[in-house]
Structure formats: C-alpha cells, structure tokens
Amino acid sequence: MSRVFNFSAGPSVFPEPVLEKAAAEMLDYRGQGMSVLEMSHRSKMFTDILADTKARLRRLMAIPEDYHILFLQGGAFTQFAMVPINLMRRHRRGAYINTGSWSKKAMAEAKKIGAVSEIASSADSNFNYLPDLPDALPEPADYVHITTNNTIYGTAFSNMPAYGDTPLVGDMSSNILSQVYDVTQFGLIYAGAQKNAGPSGLTMVIIHKDLVGHAPENTPVMLDYQVHVKADSCHNTPPCYAIYLAGLVFEWLEDQGGVPAIETRNRKKAALLYDLLDSSSFFRATVAKPHRGLMNIPFLLADEALNKPFLTKAAEAGLVNLKGHRSVGGMRASIYNAMPLAGVQALVDFMKEFERTYG
Ligand code: PMP
C-alpha cells in the first residue's frame, strides 16, 4: 500500500489512525456483531455513538450547555437557506460580510427569503484580503453572517466582530476545529464535515437555544432547527456512518491534545509553506500577509506555462490535488488538520527542487 499526500480542498485527507480504526471495526463494531452501517438509528448502539460524538465535539470546542449540537444533512449549502428561514424574524434582514464565492452563495440564498445588507466586501481585489468591517450595522439585521475561512481564496478571520445583540452566524466549513474560536461569540456556527471533521454528507450546526423555535409556520420540517433539536438530530434517518466517523476524528483530535495543540501544529505547517513562498521570486502567495488562513494556501508560479509540469511532477512525487481553483488559478495547497507536517515538508522540498530545475 502506498498513500499519497492529498492536498484536496474537500473531501480531503483523513487521519490515518481513523481510517485504520474504521476498517478494523467495519464488520464487527465493538462486539456487536454488525457494522455501524447496519445499525438502526433507533438502536442503543447507535444512540450511544451519537451521544459520544456530540460530547466530544462539545469538549473540543468548549461549547456551553445553552447551545445545541445538530448533525444534519444537505451540506453547508442547505444552511445558506436554513439560516435566513429560521433567523430572519424581526427585521427580515441578514447582514453579510462578502469574502468570496461561498459568502456570495450564502447571500444569494438569503435574498430568496428576505433582505440582505452586504456590510463589507473584498470583491474589488478578487477576495485576496479581508475587508475592514464597520463598527456598527448600517441597518438593523436579524444576524450577521461571516465566513471564517475562505476555502478558495485562503483568507481567514481570527477575530470576530461584535454587533451588540445581533447574533453572529459563522460558516466554519473549512476551518472548524483547526484553531481556537470562542463559541460564545456566535449565535450559530455551521460547517460541512468533509474538511476537518469527517466525510461529506454530514453537516454540523451549533446553535444557541434562543435562536431555535422561530421558523415560520409553513417551514418544511427538515428546514426547521427546532424539529432537529427536539428529535436530537434523528427526525429522519441521520447520516449514521458519517456521524460515527466524525466521532473517530474527534477522538483522534482529543488524542492530539485538542484544538489548541492542533492549532499550534497548523501554524507551523502554514508558516513552513508561506516562508518558502515569501522568500521566492519563482512562487508567489496571493493572500495579503495579515489575512492569511491556516487551511488553504493559494499560490502562483511566476511563469504560468510551468503550471502543468508542476502538477505532473508533483503527482509523480505523491503530492496530489494541488491545482488551484479556477477563480484564482495557479495552485492551492489545502492543509487541513489531518495533513501531517511531513506532508507540508514534502511539498516544500518538492517546490525547492522544482525551482532549481526550472527556475
Ligand atoms: N462554505 C464553505 C466555506 C465551503 O468551503 C463550502 C464547500 N467547499 C461550502 C460552504 C459548501 O459546503 P457543502 O458542499 O457541504 O454544501
């Protein structure tokens, strides 16, 4: 067996011990004589897995008891709609910080439900920086939406804005559990699992209890947070196996020392790559220094004609999925929690060698 270093933006690299454990438990989950894939979601076997997975996430992110944890389906994309459906109640308006394609898609969904104020944007420079945020909201809104990490452009917010009583909603799809965030600064956090937490098909929602129970009467049941809170994420058949795998990822993360420890490692990994980019005239980072995230690192080759040979040679060296998103071009290295330091070191060594050969 030979495994590559996978720099995919998502679905993405898994911690190897998790894959091994899932494989070992595939046919017989802990003496139950069946796979997690075969369990009823109403069985004690599964409800124990669900409770354990939730408890681990609560510990890892220090989520207070007045927040509910939901494991839903439909991806972060469905949250783009559920957030306005459930939260736009008084002002029927959401305030959005536009830092890239995912923020724009969130706004487009919200506009179908109510009004949207774009309170800041970095669209003028292809989202390669984080815009200054206003001190106060220009118009009253039911919530403020922020994309904490911009998967395509590589920018990330570390400090959250505060707008009095207006709850902050965070799309944390691409950096949940990678650095310490204070959950109490948010009213709601959502994230697709497929980068730092598990397989696609699972969406995590962390929601303050005061934001639950306000969806309009005619809301389809699956789009109403209250339905999922009441049923403990089991109103219909939940993504059982994905929840189990997320539980294994959370267990692994606890073994690594939790979020503060993984943040330290993530900072080392990002610095290793950014140091090379900043010291080279052959490669160039696209994101302004103070606005760089730890998870997705876009970079360009000075000579675009070398993009193809770079990707080919990288793949030959076992470094895969480095092609940048079409809206930025060049390369993007996604280095989520499960990417080991050795993977980033291998990439940096390869880039130095490539520059020696082609530079
Ligand atoms: N938000 C962000 C920041 C993302 O990176 C993505 C997916 N890459 C999404 C939302 C959409 O997530 P999903 O595919 O789970 O619907």
What is the secondary structure topology, with strand pairs?
Layout: E1 5-6, H1 16-24, H2 44-61, E2 67-72, H3 75-87, E3 93-98, H4 101-111, E4 115-121, E5 143-147, E6 168-171, E7 188-192, E8 203-208, H5 225-230, H6 240-255, H7 258-278, E9 283-285, E10 296-301, H8 307-316, E11 319-320, E12 331-334, H9 341-358
Parallel strand pairs: 1-11, 3-4, 3-5, 5-6, 6-7
Antiparallel strand pairs: 2-8, 7-8, 9-10, 10-12
The structure holds 4'-deoxy-4'-aminopyridoxal-5'-phosphate (PMP).
4'-deoxy-4'-aminopyridoxal-5'-phosphate binds next to helix 3.
Record field, number of beta strands: 12
Quickly give the CATH architecture of the largest domain. Answer: 3-Layer(aba) Sandwich
CATH superfamily of the largest domain: Type I PLP-dependent aspartate aminotransferase-like (Major domain)
**What is the mean predicted local confidence, pLDDT?**
98
Describe the strand arrangement of the main beta sheet, using strand numbers: 2-8-7-6-5-3-4
Show unreliable segments: none
Number of domains: 2
CATH class of the largest domain: Alpha Beta
Total helices: the number is: 9
Function: Catalyzes the reversible conversion of 3-phosphohydroxypyruvate to phosphoserine and of 3-hydroxy-2-oxo-4-phosphonooxybutanoate to phosphohydroxythreonine.
Enzyme class: transferase
GO molecular function: O-phospho-L-serine:2-oxoglutarate aminotransferase activity; pyridoxal phosphate binding
Pathway: Amino-acid biosynthesis; L-serine biosynthesis; L-serine from 3-phospho-D-glycerate: step 2/3; Cofactor biosynthesis; pyridoxine 5'-phosphate biosynthesis; pyridoxine 5'-phosphate from D-erythrose 4-phosphate: step 3/5
